[in-house]
Hints:
Blueprint: H1 2-40, E1 44-59, E2 65-76, E3 83-90, E4 93-99
Amino acid sequence: MTFLLNVLLMVIGGFMLHYWWQSGEFKNRALDLATQHCQQLGLQLLDQSMVIRGYWPVRRVSGRWLIRRTYQFEFTSTGHQRYRGNLVLMGFIPDSIELEAYQIPD
């Protein structure tokens, strides 16, 4: 019985370690995508940080299950005002990027 409990704890620990390791990869992917999007629009990503706002399991049309992660970031268009943006990843693929209405510099 003790042996099975130890194996179960090791498996659970392995899943937790794997999840923690993968979370960093997803966050880096989201940061890269937000940086590219901001550069394309002539905006500046602030603080180089992404904050996870939620994750949910979703089922694709193909029947495959994925984790939908929503990240929040801040950007500026003028250097004076902060605006928020949201980025959604479906698995490792970007689903959407939404930006608050922002002031276009002169």
